[in-house]
Amino acid sequence: MSDASITTTQEPEASFGDYVALLKPRVMSLVVFTAVVGLLAAPVAVHPFIAFCAILFIAIGAGASGALNMWWDADIDLLMKRTARRPVPAGKVTADEALAVGVALSGLSVMMLLLATNWVAAAILAFTIFFYAVVYTMWLKRWTPQNIVIGGAAGAFPPMIGWAVATGGVSVESLLMFALIFIWTPPHFWALALFMNADYENAGVPMLTVTHGRRVTRNHVFGYTLLLAVLAVGTAFTAIGGPVYLAVALVLNAQFVLGAWRIWRRDETVAEADKYKVEKKFFRLSLLYLFAHFGAILAEAALRPWGLGGW
């Protein structure tokens, strides 16, 4: 038998980019940004090198959570168009490799943050990784339509970690930043679910659109958006707010409430006919919404030493 007649099938070798994708870099960017805002908005200055190290370890912790999520969710990721090209379901990284990366980076990030800063920041980071990987990914996501509501806490902890890096503790201000992300998460993800419902149905994920239908989901989007608007505008009159933040909050929350109202009054037939144009627009606005609010908090912190920030 000649060598030419022998064929072998090899698994595609993972590239560096595949391992980066395993860490969910887009989610990581939001984590890093909100953690930076929490750190810089705190009333205690942090040495630039310590701040850099802290943000790096927080980012690594976020990446570890992403890897653990992809390890556990590989089966349902394969069934959804939005996630089928992720490294594990695409066969570029094995599930065992994803687990190993996630566990190793989890331990590294928490240990290094503890050494670089303080035990409060490290403890919150450790709890964040546990909450996202175990409580949300392994339990809530496949068990309850409130998965996004409760699980949203995982994405809301980073500014609290940044604040704890600077102050060594938790305060009303850091809890307000937590609350902004926590209340923002349901309308953000439910808007996505309205036009990606087939993915969740195919994967058997009990998203609210699957278990209760789009009409109920639209009601929830509007209700949470109203609650978020009150919280966001009210934050302007706290220690992390000010006139710049108030201006941003008023404009964006007016747009956000209007978008949620349009979603609430939509008829499903019309929504299907225009391919969920209004829902997709609201989802895109939700991304700008969070970055702009935290950017405004950061602007107030930057202006404060000049006597211009805050009230």
Provide an overview of this structure.
Interacts with CtaA. Mean pLDDT is about 95; it is low at about 1-10. By secondary structure, the chain is mostly helical. The termini are far apart. Helix content is about 75%, strand content about 0%. It contains 15 helices and no strands. It is flat, with a radius of gyration of 21 Å. The protein has 2 domains: about 25-170, UbiA prenyltransferase (Tetracycline Repressor, domain 2, Orthogonal Bundle), CATH 1.10.357; about 170-310. It has helices at about 15-20, 25-40, 50-70, 75, 95-115, 120-140, 145-155, 160-165, 170-195, 195-205, 210, 215-235, 245-265, 270-275, 275-305.
- Name the overall outline: flat
- On the 0 to 100 scale, the average pLDDT is 93
Q: Look at the helices and sheets and give the structural class.
A: mainly alpha
Helix and strand sequence:
HHHHHHHHHHHHHHH
Number of E-type strands: 0
Spatial extent as radius of gyration? 21 Å
